[in-house]
Protein 1
Amino acid sequence: METLVAIVLLTFLAIVAVGIIVLRDLLGAVILLGLYSLIAAGAFVVMDAVDVAFTEAAVGSGISTILFLGALSFTKHEQKPRGNDSVMALIFVIVTGGLLIYGTLDMPHYGRADSPAQSHPDLAVRFIEVSGSEVGPPNIVTSVLASYRGYDTLGETLVVFAAGIAVLSLLGLKRRRPEEESPEDAPGDTPGVKPDDVQSQY
Amino acid sequence: MKLYPRQRHRVLQVVTKLVIPFVLMFGLYVQFHGDYGPGGGFQAGVIFASAFILHGLIFGLQQTRRVLSPGVLRVMMSLGVLLYAGTGAVTMLMGGNLLDYDVLAHDPLHGQHWGIFAVELGVGITVTGVMISLFYGFASKR
């Protein structure tokens, strides 16, 4: 039953992914991206990765949809018609995809108990057996993220911080005056010039 | 991004006012209950930020800026990272390795508890600040 649910979810995922590529309407593509993340979150729940599913649902289908919509306001809502796609690109994509699929052949099968990550004495085995007495929290994911791998999480937080700084230095976070901000604002208004100033110039 | 001006969409505004406290509460729950259930600083930060983003979408950015000014956000972004890295510095000063929370209290388990609490709080604050300021950045241009 679980396998069936996983197959159905992954099929939907593939369909939505194709839809995103085919769709010319960028607004629709953004909404589909949100749907893609939601289905992925469902797939993660099926795989018992609740924390990852939570993140995917909150970030993937929530925040990033909003941010994509914000990014859309900088551009047009319709994708430009593409010119003739070159044959070289097609060959390149097929070869890369083939190599990636070939790479997965070496990976342990889904859910195998004897896969390296599950059976290595310093990884899952140790976390499950001693994290309760060594770190404490009943949620082992929290122990791993915040304590065993605290250094990694520090790096991740720094990445989020750096991303915030980068976007803000591009877009700016100016503290504008309220009257500049209102959407009804007539274009051509010189901000910061009061009528009195204009009068005093004459 | 098109933001709704005031005095329009009454139903949305009323529903938003009702929903926002619950979203904030859920964010806090996810933040401080992450030790016991799914969740943690990152998810909590995103949920917390989404309450403010919802406010911004419905009531207009200008109103949200009154609640949470960009200056506060800038402080939040750095404060979270500082809290995280500061926890690491404190553990080093107290004689442990970087981010080895055992030394924070007499009982190593309590030390771990405090360390994880501080670190997750740092992540939550930074993520909240970054997400809301990204939204401000995108939404203030038209």
Protein 2
Amino acid sequence: MVTLVAALTILAVTALLVYELYVHSALSRHKFGWSFLVTRTWDPVAEQFGALPFIYGTVVTSVLALLLGIPLGVGAAIFLAELAPPKISSGLTFLIELLAAVPSVIFGLLGVFVLIPMLHKIEGPLRSVLGWTPLFQGPFYGVSLLSAGVVLSLMIIPFIISISREVILAVPSDQREAALALGATRWESTWDVVVPYAYKGITGSIFLSLARALGETMAVTMVIGNDPKIVTSLFAPGYSIAAIIANEFAEAPGELYTSALIELGLVLFALTIVVNGAARLLVAGTSSKTGT
Amino acid sequence: MANGKMSLHLIRRKTVNAVMLSLTGFCTFIATGTLLYILGYLFVHGGKNLSWDFFTKLPAPVGETGGGMANAILGSAKLLALAMVIGVPIGFLGGVYLAEFGGNTFAYLVRYVTDLLNGVPSIVIGIFAYTLVVLPQGHFSTMAGGLALSIMMIPIAIRSSEEFLRAVPLALREGAMALGASKSKAILTVVIPAAKNGIMTGIMLNLARVAGETAPLIFTSLGNRFWSPGWEQPTASLPVMIYTYALGPYEDWHQQAWAAGFVLLTLILAVNIVARFILSRQAHVSR
């Protein structure tokens, strides 16, 4: 059957992808071993390569995106699923799903020319409130871990909203009715009954967004500042795995450099596979329970 | 006394209720408001910078103002055509397999791997296409970029084809088989035509998604300030142009990046809106 061949092709392509990444990173893997993952130096001239600054930048920006995106996204999903009149809710959901189709490079463009000037404006207030923490120290040039985190949060919010909203809508309405009949307020029924019921699905949507944020390339590359250092301040520029690949790959001099970049790709691949796997387990868990 | 305490408690609960509910409304307002604001900014700013030259002229030499992105528009079209020619048949046939013959462990594996491939970051797909095409050939090419995009299209093409084929009522299949059609004949002449609209819409949405992909193109099709005849040379594409022009040092480049963003986003959103409209109308008919 032709169709079976097509199905086999998918397996072959994926296997080949892993194989190619593995083989072409051999040079770097053999030279640096596991210490690649914990080395802080990235020095193309001395041919010393370590992934730690990039792993740090990727994780910090993604976590920041989640911290900003989860409250806004889940809050909005609750509003759209539980409170808003159906017409307004479906209209807004349509808009939000369209926003999920906006390409990364457009978010990057807006990040550079709209968001960074906006962040410059709130830099002062932010410093006066949180300036005592190590997170908001040093000069702020615009391109920074903070900008990357904020852009990422904008990119993942549509995902969190549309998936969480669907999971919340799938909660059987007798759950709500029972809570309300027992005298619960609207909020109590939502927060103590509906949200715990949909908890797994919401967590799944968050993991899916995290996987997206980890692998997000263009928008982050354009606003993160591209500086391979590990600094606690969010005002400082950083670097992410995807960003260094995007910036350096086409012009990487020398086989070891290319190989190290491919190994970074392998690390990123492994990270997203783990997070995606966890997300799918969680989402599958809810949908089999609710029978949708 | 007890009564007063109760009502105090009730007031507290009611306040919490009102505060938290308005907070969720506030979240919605902030989330959608910010997103709509920046997109509105793009449309106003990009539309302002759009001119006829943008569609008809080559980029001006570095340092000069003016010029357009005609080569990038054609480049994007070529990359998408190539991606479609490679990606859609594999995805579609794979989808047919999963929908019609897919009850076994092997099909489960295929679905699992498809989801896995769908979750691979686009930049990693770029590396893959680089090692497959650019490295052996020794040069960047339209071919490599198209291949990268086609790999991104496959998983979505599979899952959307499968979904639309599954939505075809069982009665149709049974009817065809009762008339003596073999299973493959029934699939070819009854099931696939019935799912045709849905599958086509899925392909359109899929194209719209990869049309904005930048990361897999930077080091496969690279970029080009001139026309790129054939499939063996590096080519310009709209998303990569937006990236380079936005980060470039010239004010004129920034204006053109806005214009390119406007064109790209308008196309993508238009396809999405039309596709959703077709799908929702179809859902009404089938009910």
